[in-house]
Amino acid sequence: WAIIETKGYPVKGGYGHSAVLDELTNLIFVYGGYISMSSSVAQLSNSLYSFDHLKFEWKLLTASTSYRYLHSGIINQGLMLVFGGNTHNDTQYSQGAKCYSKDFIAYDIHCDKWISLEHTIPRDFSADLDRFGHSVVKYNSSIYFYGGF
Question: Which residues, listed in sequence order, are joined to residue 59 by a DSSP beta bridge?
């Protein structure tokens, strides 16, 4: 392990974010989380950053319309797919949001744009999809979600 000097946008510390490597652009994308605003204040984030691990450079990208942490993220065909998470932290910033989410959104890496994928979830699906703290993996051409609350 080593601490490296980075440049670019000053990213704040936090937890519960997602981080994925896009092998086509060779960038790491970091989204959301519960971030530190000061030594005594933290809040949910909707920020998206890219990190060039060859240049050690951070960039701020287009933020999503939803704040969340403990969600999952994965890269698939030029999209960063984000599912679920906790959108409520019982603070002044939560604005009455529900705790468990079944939101399915995507970030188009080449267009720098967020897209809702709610229409892709079957309406007659009987499973309880709202969750946070789960994991996701891509195997062959399928994406699998596991666990969570």
Answer: 50
